[in-house]
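Note to self: keep these together.
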Amino acid sequence: MHDSRSSYLSEDTVAAISSGLGGAIAVIRLSGANSLSILEKISGKKPEFRKITRAQLRAGGRILDDAMVVFFPKPETYTGEDLVELYVHGGSFVAAEVLKALVDSGARQALPGEFSFRAVRNGKMNLTQARAVADLISATNSGAASNALEKMSGAESRILQKVADELRQVGSLGEIGIDFADQDVDEVSLENLRKKLPPLVEELEKLSATFSRGQKIQEGVRAVFVGLPNAGKSSFFNALLGEDRSIVSEVAGTTRDIVREKLTLQGSGASVTLRLEDTAGLRDSQDQIEKMGVSRTEKAAKEADLIILLADVTGSIPALKAQWQRLSCSGEKVIGVLTKVDLADSQLKQRMLSDLKALGISTWFETSAVQGTGISEAARGIADFCGNWVFRQPGEVVLTRYEEFQAVTEAVAHLKRGLGAPQIDLFAADLRQAFYALAPLIGATLPDDILGRIFSQFCIGK
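Structure:
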């Protein structure tokens, strides 16, 4: 067994299960100089290059599985190294036994993201593309998947690399200008060099402005359910999820804390992921625990991207209006759901909807969790309501990670400071800092420990 503390920079041959378990087939990946010899040890045969071969996998004279294996020689592989893939039966026990046999035969279990790390190290992809691989794996909607694929194609890398190349060029001229500061050389004068920065600032600010949208695309729209106690919040929450995630009871105030779940809804166009939060009912109470729950509801509503206000068709409009005014939320981020419509005739429903307009909410859906009516229409309507928040132009790249946003905004700050630099040496220093700020995105001059931290957030096996 190899030391589990092995670094990403080691030359070990590494192995990991690179697929989910529980299906018909599990994929185990092996990468490194000894991949083929390790495969021969447990299969007893040397397969032809790039040809899937049937093999009995053995360890200690015991048959582990009747599997399919394939060998890909370097450098035309994902990692740029010799690479083996084994397709074994998908039970967790079989896959774990085969992985153990590979480790016993000389491989080391891969660290999280180590295959992608090697791909970057060997020039098969850059750091931005590697992050996009992780985004694609975690994508829960069509927008997140297409954005990740756009990044994997190199679209974001090309934008950032172009800016970085121009920064290098202007920075180099700035360094030269320091030596000629006492001479009148127009090409490297501070005034002329400053003129080269606004287009770079504009390009980076355009990219950083996508971050809020990118988070909603990748991580989901934060959606909070609010309403009076017993308004049907938990029933509607469960109906959307298709399972009993929140406790449903006729006793008002059953939900005391926030219940969270993630759900992807299909709209008329693209799909949208919601980070749903079912909250305690809004009401005045002397119960300390319930008061804490209501306080958390108010805080969640203020921080949410989307508020879904639920109103019981038989409920009290004055009570709802009083509690709603306490939240002081903009109607632009609110959608209404009229619940329990099976308990009212059409006349009562219309009267309730008319009264609810006073709350300043223009969009309402009529639902009955008991009968299951209106649920799919409400789900589709919620997805469409969020559509503009997650819309992405074809070919557009949006930032999805905070570290990306932080790097770009920090680079912009240095460039803007450079625009106001009174001396050329300070100007050159600001450009160097802007370039260093972009290093986590372009992969330049990054210390090994930072690279390790980046890839340690990836999946094992990728």
